[in-house]
Every structure is written in C-alpha cells, then in structure tokens.
Design goal:
- It is a single chain.
- The chain has 341 residues and is an alpha+beta fold.
- It has two domains: 156 residues, no CATH class; 99 residues, Orthogonal Bundle (Arc Repressor Mutant, subunit A).
- The protein is 49% helix and 10% strand.
- The strands form two sheets. Strands 3-4-7-5-6 form a five-stranded mixed beta sheet. A two-stranded antiparallel sheet has the order 1-2.
- A hairpin with a 2-residue loop joins strand 3 and strand 4.
- The longest helix is centred in the middle third of the chain and has 22 residues.
- It is globular, with a radius of gyration of 21 Å.
Length: 341
C-alpha cells in the first residue's frame, strides 16, 4: 500500500464554487461528485477539504457532463478542446510575452463574459480579466478567478519556471474569507481593483518559451492536476518545515527547536518567518497530518487504525476526534466517495 505524499489539500469552498454551473443547469450533483470520488456529505462542512487528485477528477467529470471547459459557469460554453488548441499555438511562440498575447487573443474569440488582457506599465506586467457585464454573477466570477490561476500555471509551464507574483488583484465582491489565492499564487491578495488578475515584474515577459509539441502531449495527459501545484515555491520556510515534518508522520513530530536547527535558524527566526507567511508551527503540523489523513482515506485498503498508526496516533478513536476537529467531518464521511475493493 502506497504512503501518502501529504500534498496540500483543497478547500471544499472550491468544490462548492466549481459546481455552480452544473447546479445552475440542474445536473445531478451527487452523481457528479460520486464519479469524482468525493462524498456528497463533505459539502456540509466548511472545513472539509479534498485531495488534488479528487479536485482534478471533478474538473474532468464536469468538463464531460457540461461539454464546457469552464464547466457551465459562463453564459456561453467554452468548447471542449479549446485549451489543447491554445497550447498547440503557444508552444510555437518565442517568449512569454508573445504567448500571453497570442493566448488571450485566441480566448477573446471564445469568452462571452470577460476579456483577458495583458498590460505593461512602469516595469510591471498585469494580467487582467475585464468583465463585459458589470452585474454581479458569482458563476462568472469564479470562472474569471480560475482562468487567471490557470493562466499563471500555463505561463510558468511554458517557460519551465515559477514566475514570482507581486500581488493578486481581486474586486472587493470577489474576495472571500475562505479564499486560498494567497497560497496558490504565493503572493498577497489585494481586493480593491475593478478586475481579477495578478501582477509580476515585466522582465519575466522576455523569458523564452522552452516547451515543445512533445512536452505538450505530456501536459495534456496530466492537466489540470499538473497546473495546480507544479510550480509551487518549495523554498519558503513553511514549505521547508512541511517537508521536514513529513519525514516524521508516523512518529513523534520534531520540536520547533529541532526543525529550526535543521534549517540553520534560531527558533525565534523560524517563528518570525512563519508568522510573516501567516503560519504557525503547530498549525503546520496539524495541516500536514490532516492532508495526509485525507489522502490515506482515499485508499480503501487502509483501516482507520492503519491510518491512525501512520499518522502517529496510538488509537483509532484519538485519530477520529482529531480528524473531526480538523475538518468538521468524521473520517467515514470521507470514505463514502470511494468504493471498497
């Protein structure tokens, strides 16, 4: 039985929002979630989370049942194959600048609710989703935010490196307390703009496109999961701490002092770095155990006691209480989306 990679999980808020189009169309949400391996009861708790694999599966299921690459969120479907056709053009561009211009020109012919634009001013490049209708539409708003994030992921893939983001730009009405945009982009979110988008140093636009038609075939096989976290910055203190803690999942977790020593820092310095990222040491340990537990629960061959032991709990009941505290749901609820072998 494979060990959990303890990848970052995804808030149930994202599941609620991506289902808006299917719900608007009157589709069977329970059947869609079941096909994606997600228990419908998870929607009942705001603290629930799903694995990256589950979220990627949900995107694929929604794409098939809606025949729309933006999952019924917009007033007009985005035809299946649009993403692949765009990518086939972009791998022949010379630079990131040319690729963004070309890609946005392609999508402007297909999108009815918003227009993607690239602007450059005073050394800052800004990717913006400009709404065509000023009326508030939460479905189209989520489509804009998702399109913005996948633009960033695809841009990073084209140049084979993470593009450092200066800030994420949201309208006030688009920002939600449960948003994880700051973690996805690894940049601060400022919610006082009349558009959705992100900004970065314009010098990155000169990076050459290094991908080819051969590497594109691999991307299309793995998308969208490959674009969710492939270019996450692994050098941040919180990511380094998480990697160190992951080695000790099934045993007593090391102390803050021990981890700081491993990173050649004082405990005070490490605590300050984590605070600057909005993190705490104990919270990182809890999040790591939670994410690993959710991943293990998608492996039907593991009993709750097996999972408890792999996470360093002596008894299944102790794990059960901790898991319910993390997610608001019992472990068994997470199991219901996955068939027993």
């Amino acid at each position: 039985m494979s060990r959990a990679a303890a990848r970052h999980t995804i808030s149930i808020l994202q599941v609620h929002q991506i289902l808006q189009g299917a719900e608007h169309r009157g589709l069977d949400l329970a059947a869609i979630l079941r096909r994606a391996g997600i228990g419908a009861a998870l929607l009942d708790s705001q603290r629930s989370r799903v694995t990256q694999a589950q979220y990627a599966a949900l995107i694929r299921v929604l794409r098939r049942v809606t025949r729309d690459e933006l999952w019924g969120l917009c007033s007009r479907p985005l035809p299946p194959g649009s993403f692949a056709n765009a990518c086939r053009m972009l791998v022949h561009c010379r630079t990131l600048h040319e690729a963004l211009r070309t890609g946005f020109g392609f999508y402007r012919l297909l999108l009815a609710d918003f227009t993607p634009r690239l602007t450059v001013h005073d050394g800052i490049a800004s990717v913006r989703m400009l709404r065509k209708d000023i009326a508030c539409n939460p479905r189209a708003s989520y489509a804009e935010r998702t399109f913005s994030f996948f633009t960033y992921g695809l841009g990073s893939w084209l140049v084979a490196r993470r593009i450092p983001v200066e800030q994420v730009m949201y309208r006030p009405i688009d920002f939600d307390a449960g948003s994880e945009a700051d973690r996805l982009f690894e940049a601060p979110v400022l919610a006082h703009y009349p558009w959705v988008g992100f900004a970065f140093q314009a010098r990155w636009l000169d990076l050459p496109v290094v991908q080819t038609t051969q590497s594109l075939a691999e991307l299309l096989q793995q998308a969208p999961s490959s674009l969710l976290v492939q270019y996450r910055d692994r050098s941040t203190p919180s990511e380094r701490v998480r990697r160190l803690l992951r080695r000790h999942l099934g045993e007593q977790m090391p102390s803050l002092e021990s981890v700081a020593a491993s990173l050649a820092m004082t405990p005070q310095t490490l605590r300050r770095h984590l605070k600057n990222e909005g993190q705490g040491f104990q919270a990182l340990k809890d999040e790591l155990r939670r994410d690993a537990a959710i991943e293990y629960l998608t492996q039907p061959g593991l009993t709750l006691l097996d999972i408890a032991n792999r996470l360093g709990f002596a008894e299944a009941s102790t794990f059960h209480r901790a898991f319910k505290g993390w997610t608001g749901q019992a472990p068994g609820v997470y199991r219901r989306g996955h068939p027993t072998p």
